[in-house]
Every structure is written in structure tokens, then in C-alpha cells.
Design a protein that fits this description.
The protein is an all-alpha fold and 129 residues long. It contains five helices and no strands. 70% of the residues lie in helices and 0% in strands.
Length: 129
């Protein structure tokens, strides 16, 4: 959220990053990426944390969505700025771990889509004797 807020409040040079960094992207400044970073990645993960407290049944789905959102964000960002630094690797790993844990919770709880996979596996792949 801090990076998104910095990009919104100073779109020409958030945290000292020049707009030249965006020469291979569709953006001329950091305003739109900052709004997306703040809203989707930042606020989205806060919403995921609230879901843990209020309705744990939905949590694996919400956590999975925002984990994958972070992974995709980092990949697209690295492609656009044509650079990879330690923070990209760190946040990619955080998103991947978040998504993997959420998928594991869905699998262990036999929740959608894994309940369908189990059903079809048993129906079509397991030979009855």
C-alpha cells in the first residue's frame, strides 16, 4: 500500500523512481499503476485478511485471487520495466506462497475446483473391480 500511495501522491517520481522507467509501458507516469497497486494489491489483501476473521469459508478463494494478482503484477511489472531486482523476487515469492497455501487449503477442504477433480477422477479414471 505504501508504494501505491507514493505513486498516487507523486506520479512523476514516486520514491525517487523516474518516469523514464516506464518507457516500455503504456503509462506516461505512475498514477494508474499506483492506483492499481494500492487498490488491488494493497486493499485487496487487507480485504483477504478481514475475510479470515469474518468468514473463513471464503478465505482460501480470496487469498488465492490476491496471491495470483501479486504474482501477475510482478511478472507484468518486470516485463514493462525490463528489470528484475531483489524486491521483485521477494514479492513474487510472497504471492506464490500465498496462492499455493490457498490452493492447498482448497485441496484439503475438497472445495471447488478440487471437489470436481476428485469426482471426475473417481468416475472416469478409477476402474471398479
Amino acid at each position: 500500500m505504501a508504494g501505491g500511495f507514493a505513486a498516487i501522491s507523486n506520479p512523476q517520481s514516486p520514491l525517487g523512481v523516474p518516469t523514464d522507467t516506464l518507457k516500455n509501458s503504456p503509462f506516461s507516469d505512475f498514477l494508474i499503476p499506483g492506483i492499481l497497486l494500492f487498490g488491488v494489491i494493497g486493499v485487496g489483501n487487507v480485504i483477504a485478511a478481514v475475510f479470515v476473521q469474518r468468514n473463513p469459508w471464503y478465505f482460501p478463494y480470496v487469498s488465492s485471487v490476491f496471491g495470483w494478482a501479486l504474482v501477475i503484477w510482478i511478472i507484468v511489472q518486470c516485463i514493462m520495466i525490463r528489470s528484475i531486482v531483489f524486491l521483485h523476487i521477494l514479492f513474487f515469492a510472497i504471492g506464490a506462497v500465498q496462492a499455493a497455501i490457498a490452493m492447498l487449503l482448497l485441496f484439503r477442504g475438497r472445495m471447488f475446483p478440487f471437489n470436481l477433480l476428485e469426482y471426475y477422477w473417481k468416475k472416469f479414471m478409477v476402474k471398479e473391480k
